[in-house]
Amino acid sequence: MVSVSQRDNSISAESRNDFAKRLGQVMDERDISVRELARLSKTSESVLRRYRSGASEPTRPVIIALAKALGCNPGWLAFGEESLVSLRKQMEDDEFFPLPYLDHPLVVHSQREKHHNCEKRARTIRWSRDFLSAFCDNGDPKENLFLYCMDGDCMEPQLRNGNMLIAQRAEGGDFTRDGIYILGSGGAIIVRRLQRQGDRVGILSDNKRYNDYEVSLSDIVGPDDDMNNESKFVLFGRVVFVGHAI
Q1: Coil, helix or strand for 217?
Q2: Contact 78, 88 (CB under 8 A)
Q3: What does the pLDDT look like over 26-84, one tens digit per residue?
Q4: pLDDT(85) > 60
Q5: How far, in Å, CA of 90 to CA of 240, rounded?
Q6: Do residues 107 and 226 share a domain?
Q7: How far apart are CA 246 and CA 244, in angstroms?
Q8: Helix or strand or coil: residue 60?
Q9: C-alpha span between 159 and 150 (Å, rounded)
Q10: What is the Rg, in whole angstroms, of the alpha carbon atoms belonging to the chain?
Q11: Which domain holds residue 26?
């Protein structure tokens, strides 16, 4: 009796062998050596030999680099002609994708209907990876950026009510630079400018009709810390881009 793991290994091996055959075929047709292809595709020779022998199968970015170097279709190289449409869709989904809306219980309790509508709108917008990468300095923008709709006038004129904000997720309760942040405070979501001075943090509004105040650095926590302590400020992320209608 064949186990599930044995069956999956068999399928994986078949896929690797098929890829190896296509790779060898196009390398022979182009009369290109392993060394030359490794140089053109910025892949190590030892790894490329594993692909050629069927011992290993490359990731999608490597397949694209190999296909570009060989002058062939990445869909054909990866899966054969019958899977071209599927691969193209996967590539498009990786290059153009929606960003998640800030998903946290505080958002639900703060103007639920308004944020529900913002979340629905967020799902309809597909962003370019190249565009988002310019604003994300911490890993994959698809994983590390999120959307939030500005609520209120506390940050005018810099941010206006209804502006769509892109924010980079904060690592725990730490922030590495001064800037505009999305925070949880007192059971609500707020957007404020944070300015650190030693072990104190200024929480500032650009609209001077609102009071500024100062807290201890230890009062700034991450989304998974001290959620039942309303004296703490939950740091969700730093605003890196602002979008609005004209």
Answers
A1: helix
A2: no
A3: 898 888 899 999 999 888 888 899 899 888 888 888 888 898 888 888 888 888 764 54
A4: no
A5: 27
A6: yes
A7: 7
A8: helix
A9: 7
A10: 25
A11: 4-95
Q: Pairing mode, if any, of strands 220-221 and 233-243?
A: parallel
30, 179, 200, 204 from 218: Cα distances, Å: 62, 18, 9, 17
User: Taking a C-beta distance cutoff of 8 angstroms, is the pair 132, 96 a contact?
Assistant: no
Tell me which residue has tokens 């790894």. Answer: 47
Whether 161 contacts 153, CB under 8 Å: yes
pLDDT at 197 over 80: yes
pTM higher than 0.70 for the full model? Answer: no
Calculate the dihedral angle through the C-alpha atoms of 105, 110, 113, 119, rounding to the nearest 10 degrees. Answer: -60
Last residue of a domain, one of 95, 126, 150: 95
Structure tokens at 218: 């230890």
Query: Are residue 115 and residue 230 in the same domain, yes or no?
Result: yes
Q: How many helices (H) and strands (E) does the chain have?
A: 10, 10
Phi-psi region of 93 (alpha: psi -120 to 50; beta: other; left: phi over 0): alpha
Task: Return the CATH number at 103.
Answer: 2.10.109.10
> In angstroms, rounded to a whole number, what is the distance separating the alpha carbons of residues 78 and 195?
50
Q: Domain total for the chain?
A: 2
Q: The CATH number of the domain where 35 resides is what?
A: 1.10.260.40
